[in-house]
């Protein structure tokens, strides 16, 4: 198995946690998203993934898989232990909806290429760009906190006490929030889940700071 | 079953197609996203869905399901016929990755609340906002077209000749592109798939123009 990854990419970070939880060894192929305008935009990487984003995952060499959540569902189907989704359909839907709230509502709006467009094409200054970044994390975390704080299924982690795909999305998003110095004490359930998750080996080994391409 | 929907919401549109394909009757509960600043932001709807977005789906009255793709995966698990995902894990990953490319890379950046923030908080003019909208559809469709045009699994639809979750995301996104007068002839495979899908009854009955709250 091979993972095209960038240490700071939160979508890559999600898949690294999944691979670690399922005890799957993999080759780490770094793709530097910033150096020389971004290696993901060069023809060599576009041949791997025409979307020009990370992660890309290779299990069968003829079929590179795009999109972190598609990769994680693939791992769940082909390497079911330990499961990253609960058993009942309603609970699975709930966990997926938490993951998708982060993956579809918070993360994409703060994607590197969106921030670049905002700065270079729309022409906003750095203060406006930073406010934009914080706004989408803060408004997203506010409702995520409300959901997690109210739902009786919340445990040490987003769903009970064992990791699910919701935690795989939550922890990298908290990492981004911390990078931008967002006050996460306003989201105590999110912070508690994040802090507990990072005591687990599979999460700790997936952290950006310990990747081969970390700076 | 109950679906909180807005006729023009592409995430709602995805779920409407899924429900129609699976022949599931449902109660349509309209939530007007624009009138009076948006019904989704009022306390009554926030009680249904604190994310304050549509769609929300109710099967079990104690558990409202958020997020269109979580709803569709739930339907796939509880009402498996006809399937909206292929059989093999690699093919399922491919179809999910097409759906997620639209749901995570194109659609969220053009979400109503992002456009509102861009206009009212960043303070851009309408021309800049429209260029933003078009940019994310055009750059997203360019790589989606490339993937669909090159992959031998593309048929009359995104994967073979029967509808999958990829088509459920593609058709509503083309609807948005048409609303903004984007020249979709530049994406012949996408256009061909869209045109064929709309000849199918389940897609036609899900179109915004024939919903109870259509204007």
Automatic annotation (TrEMBL), chains A, B:
<dbReference type="InterPro" id="IPR005955">
    <property type="entry name" value="GST_Zeta"/>
</dbReference>
<comment type="similarity">
    <text>Belongs to the GST superfamily. Zeta family.</text>
</comment>
<dbReference type="Pfam" id="PF13417">
    <property type="entry name" value="GST_N_3"/>
</dbReference>
<dbReference type="GO" id="GO:0006749">
    <property type="term" value="P:glutathione metabolic process"/>
</dbReference>
<dbReference type="GO" id="GO:0005737">
    <property type="term" value="C:cytoplasm"/>
</dbReference>
<keyword id="KW-0413">Isomerase</keyword>
<dbReference type="InterPro" id="IPR040079">
    <property type="entry name" value="Glutathione_S-Trfase"/>
</dbReference>
<dbReference type="GO" id="GO:0016034">
    <property type="term" value="F:maleylacetoacetate isomerase activity"/>
</dbReference>
<dbReference type="InterPro" id="IPR034330">
    <property type="entry name" value="GST_Zeta_C"/>
</dbReference>
<dbReference type="Pfam" id="PF13410">
    <property type="entry name" value="GST_C_2"/>
</dbReference>
<dbReference type="InterPro" id="IPR034333">
    <property type="entry name" value="GST_Zeta_N"/>
</dbReference>
<dbReference type="InterPro" id="IPR036282">
    <property type="entry name" value="Glutathione-S-Trfase_C_sf"/>
</dbReference>
<protein>
    <submittedName>
        <fullName>Maleylacetoacetate isomerase</fullName>
        <ecNumber>5.2.1.2</ecNumber>
    </submittedName>
</protein>
<dbReference type="InterPro" id="IPR004045">
    <property type="entry name" value="Glutathione_S-Trfase_N"/>
</dbReference>
<feature type="domain" description="GST N-terminal">
    <location>
        <begin position="1"/>
        <end position="83"/>
    </location>
</feature>
<dbReference type="InterPro" id="IPR010987">
    <property type="entry name" value="Glutathione-S-Trfase_C-like"/>
</dbReference>
<feature type="domain" description="GST C-terminal">
    <location>
        <begin position="88"/>
        <end position="215"/>
    </location>
</feature>
<dbReference type="GO" id="GO:0004364">
    <property type="term" value="F:glutathione transferase activity"/>
</dbReference>
<dbReference type="GO" id="GO:0006559">
    <property type="term" value="P:L-phenylalanine catabolic process"/>
</dbReference>
<dbReference type="InterPro" id="IPR036249">
    <property type="entry name" value="Thioredoxin-like_sf"/>
</dbReference>
